[in-house]
Design goal:
single chain; 671 residues; Rossmann fold; FAD/NAD(P)-binding domain; 24% strand; globular; binds flavin-adenine dinucleotide; binds iron/sulfur cluster
């Protein structure tokens, strides 16, 4: 805090950003104006300040004019603050003696047609930045060690890929999955576009690799209960839900040698309780003690205690393995990790909310995920597509695209769910191939086949005879006698109304973030976009990161994407999450709160206000005073804004700096 005071000697550099800035305001006039400001020793301008020659101007000016502070008037600090801080440091100044004035995103881009106004606003921004730069102090980032372990939350294909990559890079990885098995939605699919490989065949080897990787500790039927800490040192408490069945390891730990579940299924055979299997969307039954499907990883049964009648038949059938504990309760475990990847995926939008399409009203209206199970050889019908109403093989099937997507009515979702066009093309192919003479009709708004070999796949489906009707389906009605369906739409290419009678309708329902994901998102301090998907740090330059240091995103939790894009993002997230771990330490921005102990009354009110639990009260020299854990403090300023005694000092956002900025704005202006 205490620093040798020197008269401010500021250098100002105004960037043209090609024509991004210079096309909308007078850069030269801003430069000339900067020269008139108190403390400004040199003012320059350049085409691209972020380029090597631009940065060299900063470096040279610091040395030549013995500057104490730098202002660059250019783009957003989110983009280039680190670049200019480095240039400031290379010139020999502390990098935190740099201030940025945003004259692009907040000025030239929004005032493109107001040259005079934009120029005046740029001058204001420069004046405000110079006022702060005059009061900047040397700051020093803190280094904290990073735990050599990572956590991945969600074990769909995204989470699986991320965990395998981290583990293969030598990092101990905890993979957390809330359901009894890993695999996510991909394990429910039959084939995958555009190559039509069998989904299970390409996913199962990865699932098996997870199960036996020495660096992966798999926790299924487990959820994150609480998160404490910060990058490098997250303490994460897990709730291991009572599954009622012990693994061999758990049994051994309890002294049951050679015991634990081996997946033999003897319990399943005797259990008297029958329930719908959610993996099959209720189209197949399961028992109260169950596995979702034969390829589950880990192959351990789970008891649904909401429906178990505790008859004890399974305990008897399990015999010497003694795997079943009907009195098992949730247990908790806290683990420490350096970085985290969230990969919580998606759920289908409840399409019954769109009443006009008749889902859950008419038997023969199904969703695309139900179609996947019906067409899959391991599904409830052994891969035979049948009408739910009478078990007949359909001869005419309509696929309704954008069912709830690109929907601004307030009931659906305004965004594109991105994979529905492609999987509906796949579905049309599957029925054409499996049911000779069956006609597929696709009702679409546009076909979005943007990926590699996707457009070719679209042509192939056209060639196979699928008929495409461009128009959104208005409503669907059932013929009560035949259970056939009338699909009403407008063919917008022919400009004609359509009333098509089909045997079955498949709704390509929109997708939405997984239920309950807000709780886990908030525990990690991750924001979401307007539509609920987790928010990346930057859509182009940091699509795997979040604004919480050390927390990364993979797969559909960040926004709808298909399997190739999910896997690619998972690999990116794993790489990003492994960097701090391999570095062994991270530097934290020094924007911490500091307690001015002489002024602190020890009331402790700030302690409860801090959203990051960074404050506590300590005894010092016979007094109670506030103490900051710097590694936890995010410099949000909540405590500083509140403290009635003015006892909190916010580094880099001090009261004198902020007052100087306000004064510069209100009292300044061109003389
Ligand atoms: C009908 C249909 C057909 C499709 N066909 C194809 C295709 O042919 N080709 C293609 O490329 N893509 C296809 N897709 C898209 C594909 O399903 C997704 O790209 C892929 O599943 C995304 O994987 P993910 O890991 O991001 O999410 P998910 O598969 O949703 O996995 C997320 C996992 O996280 C778990 N989880 C959620 N919340 C928590 C929590 N709080 N704690 C712990 N675990 C949690 C979930 O239980 C789940 O296991 C299709 C989608 C649909 C709907
Ligand atoms: S009988 Fe025992 S070992 Fe066999 S599947 Fe059931 S719980 Fe597992
Ligand atoms: S810093 Fe302020 S709010 Fe916090 S304990 Fe001290 S006096 Fe109270």
């Amino acid at each position: 805090m205490a620093e040798e005071k020197k008269q401010p000697r500021i250098g100002v550099f105004v960037c043209h950003c090609g024509t991004n800035i210079a096309g909308s305001l007078d850069v030269k006039a801003v430069q000339d104006y900067a020269r008139t400001l108190p403390g400004v020793i040199v003012a320059d301008e350049y085409q691209y300040m972020c380029s090597t020659p631009g940065q060299k101007k900063i470096d040279d000016a610091i040395k030549e004019h013995d500057l104490t502070g730098i202002v660059v008037a250019a783009c957003s600090p989110r983009l280039h603050e680190p670049t200019f801080r480095t240039a400031t440091k290379e010139g020999g100044l502390n990098p935190f003696r740099f201030e940025m004035a945003n004259i692009r995103e907040q000025n030239s881009w929004v005032h493109m047609h107001d040259y005079e106004g934009a120029t005046a606003k740029a001058k204001d921004a420069v004046r405000i930045a110079v006022a702060k730069a005059a009061l900047l102090e040397d700051l020093y980032p803190k280094s904290v060690p990073v735990e050599h372990a990572a956590m991945v939350v969600g074990a769909g294909v995204g989470g699986i890929q991320a965990a395998l990559d981290l583990a293969s890079a030598g990092i101990k990885t905890y993979l957390i999955e809330k359901t009894p098995t890993i695999g996510g939605r991909m394990s429910q699919l039959d084939k995958t576009f555009p190559t039509l490989d069998c989904s299970q065949c390409i996913l199962t080897p990865k699932m098996v690799d997870v199960g036996r990787h020495p660096n992966i500790e798999l926790h299924t039927y487990t959820e994150v209960e609480a998160v404490e800490g910060y990058i490098g040192n997250f303490d994460i408490t897990l709730r291991k839900k009572a599954r009622g069945v012990m693994t061999p390891t758990e049994a051994t730990a309890k002294g049951i040698v050679g015991g634990g579940c081996n997946g033999c299924g003897d319990c399943d055979a005797v259990c008297p309780v029958i329930k719908p299997n959610p993996f099959e969307f209720g189209m197949k039954p399961r028992k109260a003690i169950y596995i979702y499907h034969p390829q589950v990883v880990p192959l351990i049964y789970t008891i649904d205690f909401d429906s178990c009648v505790k008859c004890g038949l399974c305990v008897e059938a399990c015999g010497e393995k003694k795997a079943i504990d009907l009195n098992m309760e949730d247990s908790f475990e806290t683990v420490k990790v350096g970085t985290v990847i969230l990969a919580t995926g998606y759920d289908a939008f409840p399409i019954e909310k769109k009443r006009e399409w008749g889902y859950k009203q008419f038997d023969n209206v199904i969703t695309s995920l139900e179609f996947e199970r019906l067409i899959c050889a391991s599904g409830p019908t052994g891969g035979h597509l049948i009408r739910p109403s009478d078990g007949a093989t359909p001869k005419k099937v309509a696929f309704v695209l954008c069912a709830g997507s690109r929907d601004n009515t307030g009931v659906g979702k305004p965004y594109c769910s991105r994979f529905c066009c492609m999987y509906s093309l796949k579905h049309a192919h599957q029925i054409t191939e499996k049911i000779p003479g069956c006609q597929a009709y696709i009702f679409y708004m546009d076909i979005r086949s943007f990926g590699k070999m996707y457009e070719e796949f679209y042509y192939r489906i056209q060639d196979e005879g699928t008929k495409f009707i461009r128009g959104r389906v208005a409503n669907i009605l059932e013929d009560a006698k035949t259970k056939n369906l009338h699909v009403y739409a407008e063919d917008t290419l022919l400009g004609q109304p359509v009333d098509m009678v089909v045997d079955m309708v498949v709704l390509a329902a929109a997708v939405e973030p997984t239920q309950g994901v807000d709780t886990v998102r908030k525990m990690f301090g991750v924001s979401c976009s307007q539509d609920g998907w987790m928010l990346e740090a930057h859509p182009k330059l940091n699509p795997c990161g979040t604004t919480t240091a050390g927390v990364f995103l993979a797969g559909v939790c960040q926004g709808p994407k298909d399997i190739p894009d999910t896997v690619a993002q998972a690999e990116g997230a794993a790489s990003a999450a492994s960097i701090p771990i391999h570095m062994g330490k991270v530097e934290l921005e020094p924007y911490f709160a500091q307690c001015i102990e002489e002024k602190c009354a020890g009331c402790g009110m700030c302690v409860n206000l801090c959203p990051y639990s960074a404050l506590d009260l300590i005894e010092k020299d016979g007094r109670t005073v506030m103490h900051v854990t710097e590694a936890k403090c995010k410099g949000c300023g909540t405590c500083g804004g509140f403290c009635p005694g003015g006892a909190i000092y916010m580094q880099h956002f001090t009261t004198p700096q902020i007052v100087a900025q306000i004064d510069a704005f209100l009292l300044g202006g061109e003389q």
